[in-house]
Design goal:
The complex is a heterodimer of chains A (194) and B (652). Chain A is an alpha+beta fold and 194 residues long. Chain A contains 5 helices and 5 strands; from the N terminus they run H-E-E-E-H-H-H-E-E-H. A 5-stranded antiparallel sheet of chain A has the order 3-2-1-5-4. The radius of gyration of chain A is 20 Å and the shape is elongated. The two termini of chain A are 15 Å apart. With 652 residues, chain B is mostly beta strands. In chain B, strand 35 and strand 36 form a beta hairpin. Classes of the chains: A alpha+beta (194), B mainly beta (652). Chains A and B meet through helix 2 of A and loops of B.
Chain lengths: 194, 652
């Protein structure tokens, strides 16, 4: 491995550390009486509110249509993902240290799989919250589901729900891209030599 | 063609006129606050005989809130709930009504700072502190050895003290004497209440003074810091038909009190400790938020003879009402209610007169200064019946004139009248934001009137009081104040205060943090809800959240029990209060703010099943927010049973 690609994979790993400090995704609910929006912020290891009470208030409003309570303690992803990304950071740094191409390609393949799996899991999580409704909910509208969007805004009864990736996701994307570039450099160098 | 040209020309001229500053905007434009915008000032108008304090927005004149202070308020349970009823405790027992007069904002360096607003009760002498994060009354102190606490609650520029005084002199200490022996037994007190620490209001000292009627007060600032001024009337010491008998003399007095001197005398032990009993009621604005009464047992009296230099009398024509100190602290304006002039005293001259002993006499050890030695000037023929004065930021004073129903404004240094504006009718107090402080925000003037008659739609014999809002932002030397709006008022506003919204609005509390609620009966989650019997008392630990109570079915209560509903609103969202009312309660409803616990005491009279419900439309399923409590006959064996939904808990 060249020093450049070793440097790049090290950089990619270091950037990834940022996701422990920055949120991954933000979902904001707007309504006439919530002009400022109720905000739910998804981190790698927790879910918080825009204010200390936003999550509680989102849950309170959701119970009218029978949505499950969002309880960060009962979401296994929030326990698994920090370990997964911790492993990736470790693996990236190990790659830079050893200069092993095999490890580099493994890293790139893994990060792509993790990225796609995380998005798919997030979509499934949103689908489940929006569709698995308590049959005894006070407000029942036939055919209505409350799955929030992943990108952009969507009207859900009196609420406009808007979701966008946040800094952490952008950091992951940058980290992944740098990793991929590092791998490309190695592939190109391999071809030249051949 | 021609008409089109004319129209264009007319429009151009009209546009030019409209674009002229100040008067160009119509009154309607100046008071209209569109949706999405807020008022520029908070105004606090006392409610007089309703015992409350009204909060308005200016310039819109919108009523924002009524803060209960000395009167019970069934709308939110103030004075009825177990947490608030101690606020109205006095040495005469629980008193459900009071007469609020003079609100005054706390100050730092003579400028309103928006921490608290104080207000006095005239009838059973008391002073109160209202917290301006919660807009709630948090503290009430009873004033012993007093009658008619009118010259109150005026602050010193550092809010160290607020004033109190006897408008109605009484036998001090109280005793059973013939009223005709007024001159022998009746005395007055000027009281200084320590006010700079919430929860620690206390009487610092009382100065024993002759038995006159002490009417209003204001404290000095800047050069006159350390002094407070109290007007008096009835120096004739009449005890009947005062309208004639107390209007004999040409001059009565403004009492000038040097409170720094009083502090020295206290430090030197030149005071008399007197035993008495008075209530200090405090409801903290966080924690358990339970009002408690602390009984205080003594006060310190300062006798003027034994503490020379503590008080002087400034002769002032005639039965003066208001006493107001200019923003620079240099002049003291007396509202010579029956005088044909407005007398302005000079603080510098007063100090010189004291130094040079320019005395005209003495009463009970209190030197009377020579009028000529202290008087800066008399505003000649200002109006009829001058009462109160406020100031703008341009060096002008505005005095309300009851008899002539107008406000006169003048240059108080040059003693020159600039003009008059009418009031509808018979103006009492008047307000300029910060108008009695060291830094007035001289944008609006609000005279508050005693007679309304035809100003509004008639509502039977009893009418709302009216106030007139004027724009005084232009230099009133050249531009007459512009009349903007008639305001309806609640009760009878005496004094009022206003402060820029930018100071108060950002601090306004949205919810009480449930985590910080330390009420002994707080129920912080539905799992903790329970019903506990203690002899004849049944304590219901209840939660309220959209849209149910937990528990909402309760059994096992018996006639003869005293039931306490301790309801905790476990919401943590802004503007989601829940109400609570139960059939047959002889108290009121509760209005419980998010994170707060309030308690309703209920003594069921007859067996049966009684509904309770949420009184504040809280959500789409508010109508469903209801429950039942079963009352069994005395001696019944029905066990305590409670719950919400499927699970019922039985207490064996």
């Amino acid at each position: 491995m060249s020093w450049i690609s070793r440097g790049l994979i090290a950089l990619a790993s270091l950037i990834m550390i940022g996701i422990y400090f920055k949120p991954l995704w933000e979902i904001t609910l707007y309504a006439p009486q919530y002009r400022e929006g109720l905000r739910m912020i998804i981190w790698v290891n927790k879910i918080t509110g825009g204010t200390p009470h936003d999550l509680r208030n989102i849950n309170l409003l959701n119970h009218y249509v029978g949505m499950k309570k969002i309880d960060p303690d009962s979401i296994p992803e929030l326990k698994i993902l920090p370990v997964v990304f911790g492993f990736m950071i470790f693996l990236g740094l190990l790659t830079a240290l050893t200069g092993s191409k095999k490890l580099l390609y493994t890293w790139v393949v893994l990060i792509i799989i993790i990225g796609i799996a995380s998005l798919a899991d997030f979509w499934w999580w949103e689908y489940d919250y929006g569709h698995d409704l308590n049959p005894h909910a006070p407000i029942k509208i036939p055919g209505m589901a409350y799955q929030p969007p992943m990108f952009g805004c969507k009207n859900l009864l009196n609420f406009k729900a808007c979701a966008f990736p946040s800094t952490g996701t952008y950091l992951l994307a940058i980290s992944g891209t740098i990793g991929v570039i590092s791998a490309f450099i190695e592939i190109l160098r391999g071809r030249k030599k051949a | 063609m021609k008409s089109k040209l004319k129209l264009t020309l007319f429009s151009a001229v009209a546009a030019g006129v409209v674009s002229l500053p100040s008067m160009a905007q119509s009154p309607a434009e100046k008071v209209y606050v569109p949706h999405g915008k807020h008022d520029e000032f908070y105004a606090f108008l006392s409610g007089g005989y309703n015992g409350q304090l009204s909060v308005y927005g200016l310039p819109s004149g919108r009523l924002l809130k009524v803060i209960p202070v000395f009167s019970v308020f069934p709308m939110n349970g103030y004075g009825y709930s177990e947490e608030t009823k101690a606020m109205l405790m006095t040495s005469h027992g629980f008193i459900p009504w009071g007469d609020t007069h003079h609100p005054e904002l706390s100050q730092t360096n003579g400028v309103p700072d928006g921490r608290w607003i104080f207000i006095n009760e005239n009838n059973t002498p008391r002073v109160a502190r209202i917290d301006l994060k919660t807009f709630e009354t948090t503290e009430i102190l009873e004033i012993p050895f007093s009658g008619g606490n009118h010259a109150s609650a005026f602050v010193t520029p550092d809010t160290k003290y607020i004033t109190a005084a006897t408008r109605f002199s009484v036998p001090i200490p109280q005793k059973d004497v013939p009223i005709a022996e007024y001159k022998k037994y009746f005395k007055g007190t000027l009281t200084f209440v320590r006010a700079d620490q919430p929860g620690k209001m206390d009487i610092a000292f009382q100065i024993l003074v002759p038995g006159y009627d002490y009417d209003l007060a204001h404290c000095g600032k800047g050069p006159s810091y350390g002094w407070c001024f109290f007007t008096s009337y009835n120096t004739e010491q009449a005890h009947t038909l005062l309208e004639i008998n107390a209007s004999m003399k040409d001059k009565d007095y403004i009492a000038a009190v040097n409170f720094k001197r009083a502090e020295e005398c206290i430090a030197q032990g030149k005071y008399k400790e007197v035993k008495t009993k008075y209530a200090h009621n405090y409801r903290p604005d966080e924690g358990d938020r339970i009002a408690r009464t602390e009984w205080k047992t003594s006060v310190k009296w300062i006798i003027p003879k034994e503490c020379p230099g503590v008080i002087y009398f400034l002769p002032t024509p005639k039965s003066p009402h208001g006493v107001d100190v200019t923003p620079d602290g240099k002049y003291i304006i007396g509202g010579g209610k029956l005088a044909t002039v407005i007398p302005i005293h000079s603080f510098d001259k007063m100090i010189n007169a004291i130094k040079n002993k320019q005395f005209a006499g003495e009463v009970d050890g209190i030197p009377i200064l020579k009028y000529e030695a202290i008087n800066h000037c008399e505003i000649p023929n200002p109006c009829l019946g001058p009462l109160h004065t406020e100031f703008d930021d341009k060096g002008y004073a505005y005095t309300s004139c009851f008899i002539s129903s107008d406000v006169v404004y003048y240059d108080y240094k040059k003693c020159k009248v600039l003009g008059h504006v009418p009031t509808y009718y018979s103006v009492g107090h008047l307000l300029i934001p910060g108008g009695d402080s060291a830094k007035p925000w001289g944008k609006y003037l609000l005279p508050m009137n005693k007679i309304t008659k035809d100003v509004f739609l008639p509502t039977g014999p009893e009418l709302p009081h009216a106030g007139q809002l004027y724009d005084i932002s232009a230099d009133v030397k050249n531009t007459k104040p512009q009349f903007l709006l008639d305001l309806t008022e609640l009760g009878e506003p005496h004094y009022a205060q206003a402060i820029p919204a930018s100071i108060l609005a950002p601090k306004s509390l949205k919810i009480f943090e449930l985590e910080k609620n330390t009420h002994p009966y707080a129920t912080k989650s539905e799992e903790e809800a329970k019903v506990v019997r203690k002899g004849n008392e049944v304590h219901i630990y209840m939660t309220a959240i959209r849209s149910h109570f937990t528990p909402d079915n309760i059994e096992g209560v018996r006639v003869g029990d005293t039931v306490y509903f301790h309801v905790t609103n476990i919401e943590q969202d802004w503007d989601i209060p829940h109400g609570f009312a139960v059939y047959g309660a002889r108290t009121s409803n509760l209005l419980i703010m998010p994170g707060e616990t309030l308690t309703l005491k209920w003594k069921p009279q007859k067996p049966g099943v009684y509904p309770f419900y949420c009184t504040d439309f809280c959500s789409a399923l508010h109508q469903e927010m209801q429950g039942y409590i079963r009352v069994s006959p005395k001696g019944s064996k029905v066990p305590i049973k409670y719950g919400t939904g499927e699970e019922m808990h039985v207490v064996k």
